[in-house]
Amino acid sequence: MADIFEFKDYGTFTGPSDGNFTFDDSEPNWHEQLPTEGPKFNLTDIGVLFFQSAGNYSYFHATGNDVQNIILESSAGNLASLTCNVSQTFFNGDINANGNIVATGAIQALGSVNLSGVGDVADAINANEKLASSKKSFDISHPTKEGHRLRYICLEGPRADVYHRGKLKDSNVIEVPDYWSGLVDFESVDVSLTPIGCYQELFVEKIEWGKRIIVKNASGGPINCSFVVYAERKDTEKNIPEYIGLTPDDYPGDNGQYTINGIK
């Protein structure tokens, strides 16, 4: 076998199924050889071949006549490194990686990204994606129906709200928890009043800072109602519901105040 090889244009050809060949420029028709040793692949599947030596070559090939699945391989079966010096690369479909995907910037695809062979990372990515986009819920044994379960979904909204609920009867003062004075922004308080038993012209007369809410009946009658008080927490920064970005890392506020995708 020669030590130095020339690149020659042998034209378009096919070889025998499961055929072999050796790199030997002394034989013009090397693609027709069937040696017992050396690099092996099916010549009927070859599309493009680049070689320097018997241990240093790469080629594109498609299985049989199927051009929907084109493979880039080397003499070792896989390329050790593939460098694409292009400004942009587009994959209009799935990306399947049997190893790590490393990027200095964002990874974008028009199709899905499927990972295998990267251990807990793949599981974490898939699980965290589901967690980030899922409905937050609890699931318990049904309290009144045997053989049933009950699943409730948590409320979601753009503010970090807390609430206080209860009933007023023969009183016009809603007492809020003592700790609300240090927990909530009273400028954000909203009160919902629902009359019980009969129509009542109820309204909030005033909110005494951090302590209680005064309710009045415009008709002068007694008060009998249920109430819900909402207020936004002030011990954290205000949430920014919409922002430009591709991942939670692009959030313009303090991500340290949030638990996202199972990572605080």
Report on the structure:
The chain is mainly beta. Among the domains are: 95-133, no CATH class; 161-233. It is built from two helices and 13 strands, in the order βββββαββββαββββ. The chain has helices spanning 120-133, 180-183; strands at residues 46-53, 56-62, 70-74, 95-97, 113-115, 137-141, 149-153, 161-169, 173-175, 184-195, 202-208, 212-217, 224-233. A three-stranded antiparallel beta sheet has the order 1-2-3, with no helix packed on it. Strands 8-13-10 form a three-stranded antiparallel beta sheet. A three-stranded antiparallel beta sheet has the order 9-12-11, with no helix packed on it. A hairpin with a 7-residue loop joins strand 6 and strand 7 (149-153). Residues 1-7 and 12-36 have low confidence and may be disordered.
